[in-house]
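User:
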Amino acid sequence: MTSVEHAGMLAGADLPDDRMRALDRYWWEIAREMREPGMILDREPDAISRFLDLAAVQYIRELHVPPKYRTCLDLPAALADAGASCQGVVVALQRAAYGDPNVVMAAPGPSLSGAIIRSLADEAQADRYYSRLAAAPVHTFFGLTELAKGSAVTELTTTLTPAPDGDGWLLNGEKRYIGNGASAPLGVTFCRRAPGPWGIEAVLVDTASPGFSAGVLLTVGLRGARISWQRYDNVHVPADNLLGAHLRPSRRGLRGALHGLYQFRPGVAAMALGCAQAAHDYLGEHRSRFSKADRSELDGLLDRIAAVRRLTHAVAADVDHGTPDPHRIGAVKVQAAHLAEEMTLLVARLLGPASLIEHPWLEKTYRDVRAFEIMEGTTNLHRLSVLRGLLKGTYLTTWSQPGDGDASRN
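Assistant: Predicted structure:
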């Protein structure tokens, strides 16, 4: 197994200030604990309960929880503030995935549902949600994707109808490809209350409610995510579990979903790049001599990783500044996922025809990186988004700034 200690400064990671550099060093130190747990989670996804004391797991579990609800995370305020930003998420997840992405996906905590709570919940709803997370290490879920609908979020068929007795709502429908969806005691589900985009709502769901059922789907890689299906058969949703009821219809529901996705898509790109970098460094530890052609191919791929890493930091900064560009976010996510797959294929080829048998870590990573093509929107969805940006005439002009001499941003 490769050693995380060999990871150094990452080309293209132009960290903006001392806080981000300190966060990067912090994750460089704790990522070394993640390799062996990641191998175990590939075989036993539920084994995360044995690794709750890992610094990485505690960070993922509580960093995005308000301080008053934290029970185990002990970080300097400057480090915690840096990590809470989108740029901080990119810094942390790149290093974390270099350690192992299964640990990231298997760790309990708010995950994507927490972004929806921050965006849509009122004070009482947020208190109930975070109090539940503070009471014990629990997973949460984000229920958006549906069978036969995929990324077409405006075509949701899961329905939310008034309960006949006037007490709250009834939830009916089915979701697919939900991380930790079969093990989480609570999460956020998107559903349709009325026609049109403003008729989409987000509700907080307690999975102990009668009528809820779920199961884990078989996956080739990234098994720590425990990708699941969920079914709702007249699941009762209390009236005060409708998120964003205090907001205008145009400011809740679908907007909440997009807000969460904009926050997390750069993080998925960062994880893909972290895995690509790890595969490259693994090759360097197990083979030192290459033909001129192979060295040129490897160096060219590493240069592309550095360029996409730089762009990932740039789109994360846009999110933090309140000016997210979905076309640019989609572009870096697509490229990062492609580079992770390309690098693992190249490493497997350069290590020889039996490499996936002789190198168990590489075989696992070879499988894991395939997930990034689908996570947070499929490649085709993001390619369509890039096309829309080009048709608007703003995509290329916003990608590069006047006087910017960095060709990788053009």
